[in-house]
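Last lecture ended with a question: if I hand you only a sequence, what can you say about the shape of the protein? Today we answer it with a concrete record. The protein is Phytoene desaturase. Below, first the input exactly as provided, then the predicted structure, then a couple of comments.
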Amino acid sequence: MRPGAGRPLRAVVVGAGLSGLSAAAHLRAAGADVTVIEAETTPGGRCPDVTTEGFRLELGPTVLTETQQLATVFEALGESMSEWLGLVPLDPAYTAHFADGSLLPMHTDPARMHTVIADFAGAREAAGYDRFVRRVRRMYDVEMPHFIDRNLDGTASLIRPSVLRLAALRGFGRLDALVASHFRDERLRQAFSFQSLYVGVPPDRALGMFAVVAAMDLVHGVSYPVGGMHAIVRALVEVTQRHGVGFRFGEPVSAVRPAGSGYDVTTAHGTEHADAVVLTCEPPVAATLLGDPAAIRPVATPSPSCVLLAAGIPSGLPGSGHHHVHFGGSLIGALHDLTAGRPMRDPSFLVSVPTRTDPGLAPPGGDVLYALFPAPARHGAGAGIDWQRLRGPYRHHLLRRLSTAGYAVSTLVGEHLLTPVDWAERGMPWGTPFSAAHTFRQSGPFRQPNRLGPRLALAGSGTTPGIGVPMVLISGRLAAERVLAHE
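The predicted structure:
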């Protein structure tokens, strides 16, 4: 990995989000001289630190699964995650709220969940749950090592026995059909297929292989970091700095160009040379930095976007439980509204109240509220929505839905309301924080490749393996492997 005698590889990571921090840790662990250059004045990317009047708000991801992937980043530097970060397992992982008024706590212990489902919908449905857990565990065992946690090089990467194993598990059929083969109760079908929203595709259009997401959160478990999701960022910055990674904040990168055996990286402070570069932006932004649109694979279908409300509630909120999924009458119908380019008429949405797990995020007696309502991306039919005009009416609609669902939202402190316009202004193409949808032609080896050139790699949700906290952490490591493997 040494480009010259007696000199370590000089690597620049563009972006101090989760994927960039992961890449920096793995590059440094391999002996590289690493500098992370971040446009914002603070680290975090899509996991920012927002504190107002004593309330620490979440404006990015709130669901943390597959914590071993996070532990791997610390372990690469010879550190123990538990010494840097406190994680609290959530039980239940979610509470599902259905249109008929029924509730289902989603526990991750299969024996306990079997009993809960038997009481909720009967013994036959509980037996279906047992079969579903066995199936998604087998899917995970195939997909994680062979399709997620490794670098893929085109369709040749798929010519292996693991593809046949995945096909036998109905991984290439439709997700809704796979779930329906285990559950007859429509509520349970919703509860075990809503994860398709994470990959940007309705259950009746998503591949069955994405049932593996259910294994990640509803079998392996969901956790929450003490201090909020940004605590992950703080810990990774501190541990990488201890091991010699340099950081420069408030310094947008304007160009990355081939130069000699490496790359010239240009910012407002000048141009410097690096042997290797990892970009952590969305692919279209990477194309602009590289000055080469041909380097990036076009995206045909972006994921749906969302309207996000985050605020402090001084008087607190009634009830219990951290994550709540509220279903409308038809999950598939709501998601089809999004793909048709219109706001959901009968919305399904996520509410998180992280102070129920970590009261220190708010002043005494207060709560933090996070409400995510999926919305169309600014693409296709959705590009015509005037969110500036709709912002006020949609906020009223969102607050009314929350009130009906039992969340007292009359007084909000430090309110942040983010629509697709706001996401676009934050540099996210198509006005969505969820990047390209995981359609068949935008997944696995068909997704934007992470290798962009010699010692030039891409990390983040726009490339492999895809969307979600564990995925972008993996993407950082895979990008590091790309640039380290080049000779």
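Comments.
1. The mean pLDDT is 94.
2. The longest helix spans residues 123-148.
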